[in-house]
Amino acid sequence: MIKILNYNEVTNAEIFARFEPTSSVEDIVADIIANVRKNGDKALLEYTARFDKATLSDMRVSAEEIDEAVDAVEPEFVEILKKAAANIRRFHMAQKRQSFIINDTDGVVMGQKIIPVDRAGLYVPGGTAAYPSTVLMDAIPAKIAGVKEVVMVTPPSADGKVNPAILAAAYVAGVDKIFKVGGAQAIAALAYGTESIPKVDKIVGPGNAFVAEAKKQVFGQVSIDMIAGPSEILIVADGKTNPKYAAADLLSQAEHDKLASAVLVTDSMALAEAVSEELERQIPLLDRAEIARASIDHNGKIIVADTLDIVIDIANEIAPEHLELCVDNPFDYLDKIRHAGSIFMGRNCPEALGDYFAGPNHTLPTSGTAKFSSPLSVDDFIKKTQYTYFTEDALRSVAYDVAKFAEKEGLTGHAKSAVVRLEEE
Fold first, then answer.
1. Residue 264 β-bridge partners
2. For residue 260, how many other CB atoms are within 10 A of its CB?
């Protein structure tokens, strides 16, 4: 049963406690990365046989396999994928940056160029659930940014095939290449390249602890989006909130993972108790009841505070991945929410809308990192290059200022470089 904590009666350590993994996978992942760097495709095929029980001769997903997958998926679902993709494109198109130029001083031109990375790698998990939504959320912003090649990796099932829904989503999103490989070994392949899998410049997408650790270890060789932890939802709710809806929304994240965190923060003890009862009623009805039960019992909590302002302060301190603002006039409170990956406004906006369909990205900062990081966006797939141009007269007007600045830092070579052209005159 979920814990109910009264904010005035427990310590901050209990209120803000987060699950901390105890097992270390660093050495295992380091060995996998080293093996892939040394042995390339051979290592990938061996790991796929060992971990996924699939014996492959070729990791590349063929055009025929993609066509078969699209045909195998219900036409209705393909249409839903296309509707979701349109919503995601519309939202992310608004994020596109423009290059700029400043030339309002005689003889001086400065500017910034926006340049997409050449190649992006997309990791799509397998295992207990397939996530075609992740394909759309991660590939579409890359395409909008102008990335030339999007390379997707995903683990196969034991029969050597990829879930058809994932391939259908890749088709809709315009993914360029798809490979049947998962785990830390897939991250290593994207970071360093193998005979079959090209090296990428940026790796995005969620995964288990081994995938997260691999992304951490290859960062610097390539860029990554983030180190994602277990899924999180926090609901800010007043006493008017329907407990049935709140419980269902908490379980929408709890069913992801036994380590997922589902938190309700409210100013109503009556709501807290009603939601607790609803959770007990709804959990047995879920297909993934065992997972949801573990999440709710071990990592779930309901926090009751005296006022809605205190409730929001608690939410900001937790800085959740997903935050539902279940209050009247939610836009009155929007500016008070400073730290959250994605905010769902009002009583008719379940977090599941954001997972699949609304348009804003669902690849979000977790574990409190929303205090300093952001959802996946078009910005993740671009880099900025700046440039400067000075005419001879423009340089003459500032050269001695530059030299003086350099001398103050003890860098006489810098100073000389600034004035040497004037000395020649």
1. 235, 302
2. 28
Say if CB 124 and CB 205 are below 8 A apart. yes
Which tokens go with 77? 């679902």
**Partner residues linked to 108 by β-bridges:** 105, 390
**Average of pLDDT values for 84-88?**
98
Distance of alpha carbon 19 from the chain centroid: 19
Name the active-site residue from 321, 324, 351, 362.
321
Is 129's pLDDT higher than 90?
A: no
Q: Is 351 a catalytic residue?
A: no
Whether 321 is catalytic is yes
Q: 101-118 pLDDT, tens per residue? A: 999 999 999 999 999 999
Sign of CA dihedral 112, 114, 115, 121: positive
> In this structure, how many other beta carbons lie within 10 angstroms of the beta carbon of residue 130?
19
Q: What is the mean pLDDT of the chain?
A: 95
Interatomic CA distance for residues 14 and 314, integer angstroms:
12
Report the chain's C-alpha Rg in angstroms: 25
User: Is 375 within 8 Å of 363 (Cβ atoms)?
Assistant: yes
